């Protein structure tokens, strides 16, 4: 795998031997006073936004507060020996690294782990491999990438992520579209990466119900309090799965100590901001480390804090998703012969239909698939969402199968344009008939969002999704049915103010 050259890592470099003798490149940043509590970050990344300068900035923020900071490159990455194997070796290697840290003269024996995205996975894995870990901060962690499979559609996030590791950037939309259109999914790695990638082969062949290359079987071994951060972006529910598993079936000693913070910012935003000055959430991250690694008292907080998009203050809850009052918005007719359609508070009478003509041979799943947008009436009051949405659709198709994607937006009624993205879902349906309606249910990932008074709820429905195979094949006509005889609708629970 390509190792990008972006400058020399600072800190004291050492090679730390794992249990099998493989040595991993490790950089140690020390505060003015030692021995000290230690924060560990294990990573496969080193590119603009997640490279040397990023690590050095985090090191400065932590050493200024009296922490030692250790950054370790994973197997096969940069100066580390071995072969990089995604979602393998992290529990054993993380545990070996923690035990090495505890034996160093600059360590006072108290170790915490931090990381976002894949680094969130390695932070959790190290805690699973070493019961000595006393605190974890996991920002949008991935437990595995099996959640890329949504609604029967094969998610291409794992191969896009491998491309990111190779090139330091995500593939462009043209490359994503080509990958989405390859019928033989086992060849997507060759097309995009130029090689056979065992991880991709495992992903494709074991995509249903697999626990291989997953941290989920090891969550019960994590016996440290975990602060989980969940953003609005991405599509996985891994942070929520983690939170629920730790609270309900995790190590009994800390089930009541875990905390979840849900925000509307981008993927790993808050932990990244630790390197650039911080936010109110990164302040809570520091408080978390101080509490568990330095015995600094902190004010009590509810198990869950969530802040809807656009809100200034956090709300507290006992669990996530937050229960509320069910609301339904039913698909309705178009405003005119072209353009947008209605979202109604009750289904229109009878049976009506909207037609989507899909031809993958002439359309790009990342650009110009046909979509239909449904708009609610202008909202008279704020509506707060703190969980997932569900879309129930009644379909007919000339193809026998259909691929669908649904996106939900806040819609600016004054500008007649989307205001902000809220959430999405994709699905593949088989066994469809051109004559008989089939009900298909799509569920989005959970978010914290406020639909403000004066805006509209917008649902955009299309025949494909960028980054998903098996969506939009084959060419044909999809009929979305609605009305009392086929009550297609958007459903969610609104949380009281």
Structure in words:
- By secondary structure, the chain is α/β, with parallel strands linked by helices.
- It folds into three domains: 12-144 and 214-317, Alpha/Beta hydrolase fold, catalytic domain (Rossmann fold), CATH 3.40.50.1820; 147-205, no CATH class; 325-495, Sandwich (Jelly Rolls), CATH 2.60.120.260.
- It is 21% helix and 33% strand.
- The protein has ten helices and 24 strands.
- The strands form three sheets. Strands 12, 13, 14, 15, 16, 17, 18, 19, 20, 21, 23 and 24 form a twelve-stranded mixed sheet that branches. Strands 1-2-4-3-5-6-8-9-10-11 form a ten-stranded mixed sheet, sandwiched between helices.
- A hairpin with a 5-residue loop joins strand 1 and strand 2.
- Helix 2 crosses helix 3 (118-129).
- The longest helix is centred in the middle third of the chain and has 15 residues, at 280-294.
- It is globular and about 75 Å long.
- The relative contact order is 0.12.
What are its keywords?
497 residues; alpha/beta; Rossmann fold; Jelly Rolls; twelve-stranded mixed sheet; ten-stranded mixed sheet; 10 helices; 24 strands; disordered N terminus
Helix content: 10-25%
Mean pLDDT: 87
Task: State the end-to-end CA separation.
Answer: 51 Å
Strand content: 25-35%
Tell me the radius of gyration. Answer: 24 Å
Number of strands: 24
Number of domains: 3
CATH architecture of the largest domain: 3-Layer(aba) Sandwich
- Dominant shape: globular
Low-confidence stretches: 1-7
Major sheet description: 12 strands, mixed
- The CATH superfamily of the largest domain is identified as Alpha/Beta hydrolase fold, catalytic domain
Which topology of the largest domain does CATH recognise? Rossmann fold
CATH class of the largest domain: Alpha Beta
Count of individual helical segments: 10
